[in-house]
Amino acid sequence: MKKRLLTAGVCLAATLLMAPAAQSADAITVAADACAGCHGTDGRSLGAMPAFHEKKPAELKQILREYKTGKREATIMDRIVKGYSDEQLDAMVDYYTAKK
Ligand code: HEC
∠ CA(37), CA(34), CA(45), 5° rounding? Predict the structure, then answer.
């Protein structure tokens, strides 16, 4: 029981410590790496997921906004983009498109 409380305390402390870093470059890298599972580390996905490495940053930002508003049809991206603010999505696009 004591150990459990300690674990919970450590988790809470870690969350509080990480909160101010939410907008840092590191946080964007972590968020963008979550996209890599499906789209590859540079948007050049192998397999069935669509690749986006040939698209321009402005176009990608537009696409992600359209997923968010429901203007663009999606099976999964509509749900994913809703977890991020427009600023975070823009930062992730900049991160990916700067990789080339
Ligand atoms: C679970 C797998 C998965 C993850 C994770 C994922 N995507 Fe996608 N992505 C897809 C699929 C599938 C599509 C095709 C649209 C659809 O069916 O939702 C897509 C489409 C896209 C497109 C449009 C490509 C085009 O040319 O039309 C972009 C841009 C994109 N994703 C960016 C991202 C970004 C940025 C992230 C991270 C925030 C991300 N994706 C995370 C599976 C994923």
Answer: 35
